[in-house]
Structures are given as structure tokens and as C-alpha cells.
Design a protein that fits this description.
single chain; alpha/beta; FAD/NAD(P)-binding domain; six-stranded mixed beta sheet; 8 strands
């Protein structure tokens, strides 16, 4: 918490859309901000023109940028220098701070080269537990990689992670952007979600500098409806087989310009889109309103 008339100091880990949009907003309010990033903007693969321009604007507004390889342990160390730490990077070891543990999570990071046999046993164990029908078709004695290059690890499951974590020193780190929300790019909402979440968190920071759990809960509530709607809408769009009411909606769009326009406009308001698509009944009510039921 900032004391007296001193402005709070905010440390942001990650210089993507969320981190830089948040930094720019805070500098508009003369709040000291340091952004930590493992790479320079020129080394980043995404937004090669946009991100360097944002960073230049951030620095012109008095923001500080430091190249540093941040780990979960150093997040706690940074929290001693700043009143609040915001994690805005999707880097796996840091964003994992906000992931509730699942039984298959271990597969994303399990090593193969040190002990191939142990890795294969782990895969078979998880396959037996979670996909028994597939496991029944596997011959454990012959189960192995054809070659090490055939191994691909990771997961892209649209999800909303935990909003914040309590650090070992009792302070809090709050997630934003890729650290908070992971979405498939199918509906093009990743950057939109990151920017919106950064805006809501930044506004919360300007209104309340008591960076305790109550602050984290309030910041989480401000953005919850939209970011969760984006995640749920994304999962509906990529689900197989496609949901019947989604197909019904898409078919109606081909017959009705007003329905198509509403669907398209709602890319700007994903919570409204999910209001329509959350259940078959909601979709049916929308179509009935347009005289299509």
C-alpha cells in the first residue's frame, strides 16, 4: 500500500498488449510503473510494429522498461520493491502460478530425454485414468516414441485462471492478459480480452491503493463477466461435435441480415454474445424475437 501522499509503485511482468496497455493507463495518472520483460520488443514474434510503438509511448510518458528473466521466485522478490506486482506474461513457469493443479498438468512439463521409460509410464498412467477406451487399444510393451522429434508437449485449452495469488511474503500478485485468460484464436478475442482486463485493473488501481486481498477481489469482479464470456464463447465455437443451437444460429444468420448484424456487432461485446449462446433456450428466444422460430 502506498503511504501518505506517495503514489503507488507498480511492477508489471510482461510487455504484451495487456502489460503495455496497463502501463500506459497508469502513466496517464502519473503512477510509477516498471515493466519487466525477458526480451526486447525487437525480439518478439507478435505485433512487431505495434508493440515497439506502445513501448516507445510508455517510455515517453515516463515509464521504465527493464530486460530481465523473471521467475516465480523473483516475482516475490519484485513484490518487495513495488506496492503491487501484475503478471501479464503467458510464460509457462510464471503463469502457472495462477493455474489450479489438474491431474494431467504434469504431462505438459514432464521430461523425456532424462528417463524415456519413466515418461512413457507416466503417459500410460494418465491414459489409463482419463481415456480408458484408448488405453485398451495400446500394447504397453510396444508403447514408445518412434523418435524424440515425435514428442509435442503443451496444451491450448481456453480457460480463465486464478485472478491472483498470495505470495510467500504475504503480498499479492494479480494476473492479467495471457497470464489470466487463455483463449483459442478462433474468434479473435485474445488481444481484446487482454486490453479490456488491463483497463479494468488499471481503473481499480487508480481508485484503491490498498493492495490486499480485498483489492484483488474487487479487480477480479470488474472484469469477470466479459473475460469468462469470451472463454465460454470460444469453447462453444471449437467444441466437437458442434452444438445444435450454434448450428441453428449460424443457419439463421444466412437467412436474416439483422441476426447476422447482431452476431457481428457482438464481437465488440462478447458478454452479449454469450447471453445469446449460453443455452439453447437463449438462442431460441433470440431467433423468435427476429421471427425465425
Amino acid at each position: 500500500m502506498a503511504s501518505g501522499n506517495r503514489s503507488p509503485s507498480i511492477g508489471i511482468v510482461g510487455s504484451g498488449v495487456a502489460g503495455l496497455h496497463l502501463g500506459l493507463l497508469l502513466r496517464q495518472h502519473d503512477i510509477p510503473v516498471v515493466i519487466y520483460e525477458a526480451k526486447t520488443p525487437q525480439q518478439m514474434a507478435d505485433y512487431r510494429i505495434y508493440i515497439p510503438r506502445l513501448l516507445a509511448d510508455f517510455q515517453e510518458r515516463g515509464g521504465e522498461f527493464r530486460v530481465a528473466d523473471i521467475t516465480p521466485r523473483s516475482v516475490t522478490e519484485l513484490s518487495e520493491r513495488h506496492d503491487l506486482i501484475v503478471v501479464a506474461t503467458g510464460k509457462s513457469d510464471i503463469s502457472a502460478m495462477f493455474v489450479p493443479g489438474g491431474d494431467t498438468e504434469v504431462l505438459a512439463d514432464a521430461g523425456y530425454t532424462d528417463d524415456p521409460a519413466a515418461f512413457e509410464r507416466l503417459v500410460l498412467e494418465k491414459l489409463r485414468a482419463h481415456h480408458p477406451q484408448t488405453f485398451a487399444r495400446v500394447d504397453p510393451a510396444r508403447f514408445r516414441l518412434t523418435r524424440p522429434q515425435d514428442l509435442l508437449q503443451g496444451a491450448v485449452t481456453s480457460m480463465v485462471r486464478e485472478d491472483y495469488v498470495r505470495l510467500p511474503n504475504g503480498r499479492y500478485a494479480i494476473s492479467v492478459g495471457d497470464a489470466h485468460t487463455v483463449v483459442d484464436p478462433v474468434i479473435g478475442q485474445g488481444a481484446n480480452s487482454a486490453s479490456y482486463s488491463a483497463w479494468e485493473l488499471g481503473t481499480a488501481i487508480t481508485e484503491d491503493q490498498n493492495f490486499d486481498e480485498r483489492f484483488c477481489q474487487k479487480a477480479a469482479a470488474r472484469r469477470a463477466n466479459r473475460v469468462q464470456a469470451i472463454c465460454d464463447w470460444t469453447n462453444l465455437m471449437i467444441g466437437l461435435p458442434p452444438a445444435g443451437h450454434l448450428l441453428q444460429m449460424l443457419g439463421a444468420m444466412s437467412q436474416s441480415k439483422p441476426v447476422a448484424d447482431e452476431f457481428t456487432d457482438n464481437f465488440n461485446y462478447p458478454e452479449r454474445q454469450w447471453d445469446i449462446l449460453a443455452t439453447p433456450e437463449r438462442t431460441a428466444n433470440l431467433l423468435a424475437h427476429h421471427g425465425l422460430m
